[in-house]
Model the fold of this input.
Amino acid sequence: MTRSLFIKIRPAIRPQKGFTLVELIVTLVLVGIIGTFTTLFMYTGLNGYLRAKDTSEGALKAQIALDRISLELRDIDNIDLGTFNNDTRIDYTSVTLPGNRKILFNGGVISLDVNGNPNALLDEVSDFTLRMTPQELNYFADNKDEVQAIDVSFKVGDIERAFSARIFPRNMVPAEP
Done:
C-alpha cells in the first residue's frame, strides 16, 4: 500500500484590500477643507452677483423714472407757484400732455399724478430734491423772471450714487406771479 503524500501549501500572506483608519481620517479632513473653501468661494461669488443684479435693477428703474420726469417737465407751459414746494412737489400743465399734472415725493415714493390719479414712478427713494432756477430770460418784455431750469435729484435704495437731471423747459414759464 502506498501512501500519498499530501503537502499542504499555505498561500502567501497578501496585504488586505481597503483603507486604514488613518487614511480615511486624512481623506475626510482634506475633503472638509476643500469643501469649506469651495463653499466660501461660491458664497462670495453668488453674493456679489446678487448685489450687482439688485444695484443694476435699481439704477435702471431710477433712470426710467428720471427720463419720465424729464419728459414731463420739458414741455410745461404753466407752474402753479402757490403749490410749488422745493423738495416735495410741483404742479403744472403741459403743452403736449393733457390734464393737470403733479410730480410729488411722499413717504419715499416719487409719484406722477394726472387729474387726481397718482401713479408711482419709483419707490425706496431718499434725498429727493426738486429745485426751480429763476432767471430773466425775456429781457425786452416784462422784467419778470422765468423758469430757466428745474433740477431733480434723488437716491434709490442702497445705491450710493445720486441720480440727477437739469431740465430746461422749452417754453417761457413765469417763475413769479
Q: What stands out?
A: The beta strands are 76-79, 89-94, 101-106, 109-114, 117-122, 125-135, 146-156, 163-167.
